[in-house]
Design a protein that fits this description.
67% helix; mainly alpha; Helix Hairpins
Length: 99
């Protein structure tokens, strides 16, 4: 029994060393996605039921404040863009416009 625990411990440590993460970190991807979505909503100031138009409008308001040409930073602009992209990817595709 002790031998099995030692071998398991060595496997876990080698996994951590080789891949840079613990073996059980891969068991929680849904929680990370939910956290990223919540963070993106907070950053843009929209709720969980926000429409495509609301997300785009919130992104425009935020970028007007954090754009590097207006005294913001490139990092803040990248975060705003990433939040917009993440939230828009979660929404269903818009219906095609009638031609």
């Amino acid at each position: 029994m002790l031998r099995a625990l030692i071998i398991l411990g060595i496997i876990v440590l080698v996994w951590r060393w080789a891949l840079g993460r613990w073996p059980w970190d891969d068991l929680r991807p849904a929680a990370r996605r939910a956290e990223a979505l919540a963070r993106a909503r907070r950053l843009l100031g929209v709720g969980p039921g926000a429409s495509r138009e609301e997300v785009i409008a919130a992104h425009r308001r935020l970028t007007a404040l954090v754009h590097p040409d207006r005294g913001g930073t490139t990092t803040a602009m990248q975060e705003a863009n990433a939040a917009r992209d993440l939230l828009l990817a979660e929404l269903p595709d818009p219906p095609p416009s009638p031609d």
